[in-house]
Amino acid sequence: MKKLSLYSILLGCLLCHAFSLRAQQRIRLQFIDGNSNTPVNSVSIIAPDGKEIANSDKDGFVSIAPPAKYFIAVRQGYKPDTLRNTGSAVIRITPLSMALQDVYINNRKVRRILHSAMEYVVDYDFVGDDILVASYSGNNGRKAKLFLLNNAGDTLALKKFPDEPVALFKSCTGHYYCVCTDKLYPIDITGRSIALGRAMDSKILPLLSQCEQKIKDTYYYRYTNKETFSSVYSSWQLQDSIATPFYKIEQPADAKGNAEEMQEIMSMLQFGDFRGAAMLDGMRRLRNDISYRSLGLPIFRTSDSLVIFDFNKGRINYFVPVHTALEQTGIKFDPGKTFRVGIIEDLVTKRFYLYDMAAQTLEELDIHSGEKQKNTITLRKPFAEKVKVHNGDIYYLWQDEVNSSTRQLFVQSPY
């Protein structure tokens, strides 16, 4: 009996040890919400090879074998978390509403418009008080979408897009298009629905973009000729056979300098100085790009007139819709030698702003006096893109350096 009792004790110890080892081969985790401290169900545990191996139950619990390297815990609406072999634990997962908090730029509150954090926003435009957004969330422009959002970021309409979007374009007649590499898709926005028209060849886009304003039955065009370094502003009506020019911006000195440099480059090539010719051609192209900036200013419109900025002559020109000159105002600000400032118009408030791309600042401009206002709005966020002003608020695209695969649309209060 003593021997049997000893054997029984040894057997019991071995069984306990075996159960202990088996228990140590699995870890028990509980997932809770990092904001509300409540259990989170349906959290998927993903292995490094992409396979789903377990899901948390209604109380947030899941039992898994210890990972050799790591597992990833994912759930819709939460920030993904990486799990390593740390034993049983309570895992606090962070809701995206906490992970993507409002950003502050220079002590001015900035908020993200598109709530989907995985989207790369290609372009955006305004449809009344709403916002049309073109974006994608897959590699090489896949999973493209068109969003219609209100100014709070709520999705009013969503349309899957069949191609890789490059830009959005609004014609002078108020029609919207989504631009792709070789196609142009008309967009029809009716109420809270988005419909796509039949795809067209994108080669017609330069022709559509020449028309910059339409008032009643009159169309206003800007033709830029980079060979002659000139921009011609013209009007056209349906009964006209040809357009009528009413203003012209010329840069004859730049055109002459470009021609002389081209002759010198050809001479250098004839004598075999290929390196020198390439260097001179690079400098020529850089100088030409600077010259083209002052030719690329569009036709703006106030409530009663057309407005054309002429940086070369240092003045602001006003025309009534029948393209009769009303007045000219001298520009009392320095556009810089490289014309690195742009003009932005708030189409709702009809206010104009000087946008300095290098300094990332906006300054309100009084177009009647040609002077800048005192208040300077600083973005201070590097590489803000596609800056616009709508109803007094500043909108722009910004790409987070932490996650370079996404680019988001932000809105910033002016002051």
What is the CATH class name of one domain?
A: Mainly Beta
Which band does the percent of strand residues land in?
A: 35-45%
Q: In percent, how helical is the residue content?
A: 10-25%
Q: What is the spatial order of strands in the main beta sheet?
A: 8-9-33-32-31
Q: Uncertain regions: pLDDT < 50 for 5+ in a row?
A: 18-24, 101-108
What is the CATH T-level topology of one domain? Immunoglobulin-like
What structural category do the secondary elements indicate? alpha+beta
Overall average pLDDT:
83
Tell me the name of the CATH homologous superfamily of one domain: Carboxypeptidase-like, regulatory domain
Q: Biggest sheet, in brief?
A: 5 strands, antiparallel
The rounded distance between the terminal residues' Cα atoms is 91 Å
- How many DSSP helices? 5
CATH level-two architecture of one domain: Sandwich
- Count of beta strands: 33
Query: How would you describe the shape?
Result: elongated
The Rg value, from CA coordinates, equals 31 Å
